[in-house]
Specification:
- With 320 residues, the protein is mainly β.
- It folds into 2 domains: 54-78 and 246-319, no CATH class; 101-237, Sandwich (Jelly Rolls).
- The chain is built from 1 helix and 22 strands.
- The longest helix is centred in the first third of the chain and has 21 residues, at 33-53.
Length: 320
């Protein structure tokens, strides 16, 4: 039996028993989410700075400059996104290797009648790369969420997946980056699988230089509008750079040392915009040589490899 006590709120009484303690109403924590994100980012910066300080005893550096990659620009907005070639991994909040594009090839597919909720396209990768774009048309009466999967065949192990909401009657190009994949496609069979509301059914074939497909059931706009419905970007992982804009530094900088939370990151470049000291070892006090003015940028170098990344950094600076 449930009883409501005007003084104590909701209570439960078992048959023949006593009342339970008052049941507290559920707490709405939605307003705390931003505070939690901020706290996690600040803790990551605190940790990397403690890590940096522990590398020298006694502490003899003059300045610490640090950030964590909670988003593409960094929590403190130190990342120069335009000059950064590393791929940002949204799920794990870090920068991975770069990706060098060789060629991007799109398949133009005609339309036929028919609708359905799940569509599979059986494909073959003729070169190394990844599916970078799939265009989806929602022909249902209302908005619908669509999930795109790139899957190995046979077995259907998921290499990448992404979900988007498409308004009724709208067409959306769902894009993927190498950072969305557990590995790149490489001269193999795979399939594109989409779940969602009604989509246009196509039966077609495509034979390109980067990829081909058969047994098509895919998605396009109305007849006559055509377009590149599936895009395969050929290329491979490359050394990635995460470029950091440094604030204006007072005094005269003589040495720097970079400490990172990373996997297999070993070097960084530093420049004043005129001279550059390249391939400086991390976790090492490096004396400026070609950099004759106070540094303005560093580039963290992420080596080739799907598992290599950098998550936070701290630059230690010594002055004359």
């Amino acid at each position: 039996m449930v009883e409501i006590n005007s003084n104590k709120g909701l209570q439960i009484r078992q048959t023949g028993g006593s009342l339970s303690a008052p049941i507290e109403p559920a707490t709405d924590y939605s307003n705390d989410i931003n505070a939690l994100v901020q706290e996690n980012a600040e803790q990551a910066i605190d940790i990397i700075e403690l890590q940096a300080n522990s590398t020298i005893t006694p502490i003899d550096h003059d300045t610490l400059l640090s950030d964590t990659f909670s988003d593409t620009t960094g929590y403190l907005n130190t990342v120069n996104v335009g000059n950064t070639t590393s791929v940002y991994n949204v799920t794990n909040k870090y920068y991975e290797s770069g990706f060098t594009v060789v060629d991007a090839e799109s398949a133009t597919v005609g339309t036929t009648s028919g609708t359905g909720t799940n569509r599979v396209v059986e494909c073959t990768a003729l070169t190394k790369g990844y599916i970078s774009s799939v265009r989806i048309e929602n022909r249902s009466a209302g908005a619908s969420n669509y999930t795109l999967y790139i899957r190995e065949t046979p077995g259907n192990a998921i290499l990448a997946q992404k979900t988007t909401n498409v308004p009724a009657g709208a067409v959306v190009s769902l894009t993927l980056t190498p950072g969305d994949y557990s590995r790149l496609l490489d001269t193999e069979t795979f399939n594109i699988y989409i779940t969602g509301a009604a989509v246009t059914t196509l039966v077609h074939t495509f034979a390109g230089s980067n990829f081909s497909y058969t047994s098509q059931e895919t998605w396009t706009t109305a007849s006559g509008q055509g377009g590149g419905n599936i895009t395969f970007t050929e290329g491979d992982y490359s050394i990635g750079t995460v470029e950091i804009d440094l604030p204006s530094i007072t005094g005269t900088v003589t040495d720097t040392q970079l400490v990172v939370n990373s996997v297999n990151v070993a070097e960084y470049n530093i420049t004043d915009g005129v001279g550059t000291d390249s391939a400086q070892a991390i976790n090492t006090k490096n004396t400026l040589t070609n950099v004759t003015s106070n540094p303005t940028k560093i580039q963290i170098l992420v080596p080739v490899g799907v598992s290599n990344y950098v998550k936070t950094y701290c630059l230690k600076i010594w002055k004359a």
